[in-house]
Amino acid sequence: MFGRRADGRRLSNLDPIVQFAPYVMVQRNDACNLVTDYIDYDPLAAYIRKRSKQGDKVSFMGLLIAAYVRAVSQHPDLNRFIMNSQIFARNEIVVSLTLLRNAKNKDSLDEALVKMKFEPDATIDEVEKEIDAKVKEAADEDENNGTVDFAAKLIHFRILMKLVVKLARLLDRYGLMPGWLYDVSPFHCSMYITNIASIGMPSIYHHLYNFGNTSIFLAMGKFERRLFSTKDGPALKTVIPIGLTLDERICGGASYAQGINVFKEMLAKPELLEQRPEKVYTEVPMKSNRGGKKK
Question: What are the structural domains, with CATH classification, of the chain?
Answer without folding.
Answer: 28-143+180-289 (3.30.559.10)
